[in-house]
User: Fold this.
Amino acid sequence: MHRSRQTAPALLLCALAALAGCAAAVRPPAVAQAQAAAGALQLESRSKHSGGKGGEEKLNLRPIIGIVSQLGDPAPKGHSYIASSYVKLVESAGARAVPILCDMSKEEVERRFKAVNGILIPGGAQDLRPGQPFFDTVQQLVDLTIEANDNGNYFPLHGVCLGMEALSVAVSRNHSILSDYDSENLPSPLFLTDIAASGRSRFFSALPPQVVEHLQTRPYAMENHAHGLAWTAVEENPRMKEFFDVLSLSVDRVGKVYVSTMEAKKYPISATQWHPEKNAFEWTPDKDIPHHPDAIEVTQEVANFFVSEARRNFHAPASQDEEEDLLIYNWAPSYTGKHKYKGEEVDFVESYFFPLAPEFKRQLAAKRQARQAQRAPAAAAAAEE
Ligand SMILES: *[C@@H]1O[C@H](CO)[C@@H](O)[C@H](O)[C@H]1NC(C)=O
Assistant:
């Protein structure tokens, strides 16, 4: 900053006048006390930063969350996307985001898994069958998360909407475990199961009591899905029943009941069929997203819950250079929610786009060719009969 010679003394005089005003209002002993307290606090915060003192839990104060990208609208051709609201969700609670692209190689997904402290699987619309890039990436991340935790390495994962559905398919190994629901654009209340109501769930116990009360008594859970998980499907699938506690239920337009919140019994894995990120960060006027201040608090507290879980993990990029190369700050979001944005999907106010890897594009082209080649002889055979 450039300042002229004449204004510098004037500024100094102002500062002195302010100090004099201050000294008149505050008694000198308070100044000495403030200085002593500040010195002690600075020492304490330094020791906390390096991992806490005896007895206190060690926390990772620079948590990073991996967020999975997906194919399709609003991504332009040859790209995958992440809706910015998921990035904002983790950023709002003091974490940074790293994209995990659905077209990445298994090796690269694993490398990123070892650099992040939690995984967020976003909502959207994808084919949840093995062999599909988004689903395969989710399956690998779920398997890596379970393996890490089994090895005593606390590692959280949270799925939202499609993310919860993908998690259900990945854990159940049954891609017909989901059923149809009429719950698009239907903000709803949550009905807590006994486990959640009696304070035995990590997810609901972490939320302040007034937030849990609002979620039960007001339609603040932004539901926006055509598929979902029936409680009977959890009960009937031995893998699901052993793995998950159902924490809340909600009801669709025609009275069908689905699982709206669940968490793993033995792992820091949780899922919401509803969208915590939309209340504070999505603004499409075509949807009835709850924006009441108490609904915004739902976004904030779910973010606090998930990022607190991530602070218990100590994965880290190999170097500062690697960290900087991985972070989402290398990309700029597009304003996809703008009125008359080209593309059907205007539900997301902002989205990040990532070019597909050349190798992935080659594989797609090869699969397409193989399908065409299969179809050609089949058609010829049919003509002969
Ligand atoms: C998959 O889940 C659905 C819904 O619970 C069930 O009807 C079906 O029998 C299951 N399939 C297998 C192979 O277990």
About this structure: The chain has a mean pLDDT of 90. The pocket of 2-acetamido-2-deoxy-beta-D-glucopyranose is lined by residues 174, 176-177, 233, 236 (CB under 6 Å). Residues 28 and 34 are 10 Å apart (CA to CA). DSSP finds 15 helices and 13 strands in the chain.
